[in-house]
Amino acid sequence: MDEKAVDWIFLVDTLNFSFWSESEDKKYEVRHKGQTYTGYWSLCAAVNRAMEEGIPITNPGYYAGMTEKELAYLLRSDSEVEMPLLQERVNNLQEAGKVLKEKFDGSFVNCIKKCGGSAQKLLSLVVSNFSSYRDEAMYKDKTVAIYKRAQILIADIWSCFEGQGYGSFDDISSITMFADYRIPQALLFFGALEYSQPLLDKINNSELFGV
Predict the structure, then answer these.
(1) Considering only CA atoms, which of 4, 11, 116, 2 is closest in space to residue 60?
(2) Catalytic status, residue 25
(3) d(Cα 211, Cα 197) in Å, to the nearest integer?
(4) Which is the catalytic residue, given 78, 170, 180, 201?
């Protein structure tokens, strides 16, 4: 529960998207300390593996200049399936690292300090400064904002610090309770949510793979 934990969480959540494989039999996997991980946990394992190898992967000054080749090595797979969307992940890291260096003295801790214990202020700061967290779209001339990973980032910090220290937010209850994509999947399955037919066709045809 220290500043290093904050920077670890920010790094992981900046990379936390799209672990889908086209086949259930072939997935991106990372073996670490005798266990095999897939999905989000494979990312965590890869980051921890890199740290144990002495690579300063959680340092914004390091990943601001990271190349795709370097990230490919750090996130190398222990199966025949590599981490998807590697270039997009590199783009996210480069932007995040540069913003932290230029605006927040090289640490996400300073983003938290600027928000005075407000989850909503931190949410606004994150989506305003880090474009990879700004999941917005226009729908019928209105801006629709989901802010999935931005809210997960705040929730992860709150959970890790057990609501204390850097994780103390007076308005944590204002953060969406279920920001993750699993919720609309479940609601669709049970018939509580309907997708438009064009969107459903794209999903069924795997045209949105990686989103």
Answers:
(1) 11
(2) no
(3) 18
(4) 180
